[in-house]
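job 3f2a | input accepted
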Amino acid sequence: MTVLRGERVVLRPPTEADIAPLAAILATPEVARWWPGEDDETMRERVVEGEPDTTSWAVCVGDEIIGLAQGWEETDPMYRHGGIDLSLHPAHHGRGLGADTVRTVARWLFEERGHHRITIDPAAHNAAAIRCYERVGFRPVGVMRRYERGPDGAWHDGLLMDMLQGELR
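job 3f2a | predicted structure (169 res):
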């Protein structure tokens, strides 16, 4: 798998040794509200065993793992496009590292994987993530009502955002 380099982040393939640190990041309250139910077992399934058509990276600054990034691909020729998922430890929020990570994965999906469109789907009330994604070039497309179940058991809206090739900032 490919190592990707952003301006300040390095995205590298996760290893077995990364499972506990990544699970701990996703278990922090600020992240778990958007990524509920993640633990060592689900992280192992996600990053070591892998998911079909999904590439996962440990997001690093220097030698420190600060988060998880994923690029996924819809391979049906009629709907072919890429997508991105991201979670960063809250100690690294607000420093431009999320935008650097998303930009790096988007560049890979456009340039290396040949996609013309990329989507991302934050919770509709995750204002910080939405600002980050807009900075990179994503635009809101629409609200997906009652899109995902939150840790509280209630259904929450999601915001579908997309970016076309040539719109990456």
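job 3f2a | The domain at 4-164 is CATH 3.40.630.30 (Aminopeptidase).
job 3f2a | closed
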